[in-house]
Predict the structure.
Amino acid sequence: MKMPLQITARNFDLPETFREDIRKKAEKLDKYYPQIMHCRVTVEVPHRHHHEGFLYNIRIDITVPGAELVIKREPNKDIYVAIRDAFDAARRKLEDFARRQRGDVKHHEEVPRAHISALFLDKGFGFLTTPEGEEVYFHAHSILNRKFQQLKIGMEVHFVKEEGEKGPQASSVTVIE
């Protein structure tokens, strides 16, 4: 880290063993994003629950170039678990931030579209035609959001294509509403 770690305890005295655990976990964050400029960890006991005892809130504020990442988890009765979960979430958030900066964000392929070009209601299958003119077979069991008998020629659909025994076929077909 370029700047120091700040550890704050609210409404109770944080023992040194927990402070040392936080320091070690904060140092490990550098492996996931080395340009961390500042890390502030707040451990808080908001109020005492009569039935549950103390609940520990952990908040981690991480300053990186161009952004501030805030990690806040659900309170936990076990301070070790609360610290571990908060730093696991911080690691994931830093990894996601680094991926976005590198441009490694997943790009989902567009789901193919087609229209129903032929229906054989009595035999339980039909054909789709893609915008490129490819014909794709589909079976009545591959329809997801309608009954096969409700289909009409010309309806637009999304589909998942796979190679069948006799050529391309749709493993799932969803009518576009």
Summary: The beta strands are 5-10, 38-44, 57-64, 67-72, 113-120, 125-129, 135-139, 156-164, 167-175. The chain has two domains: 5-102, 113-175.
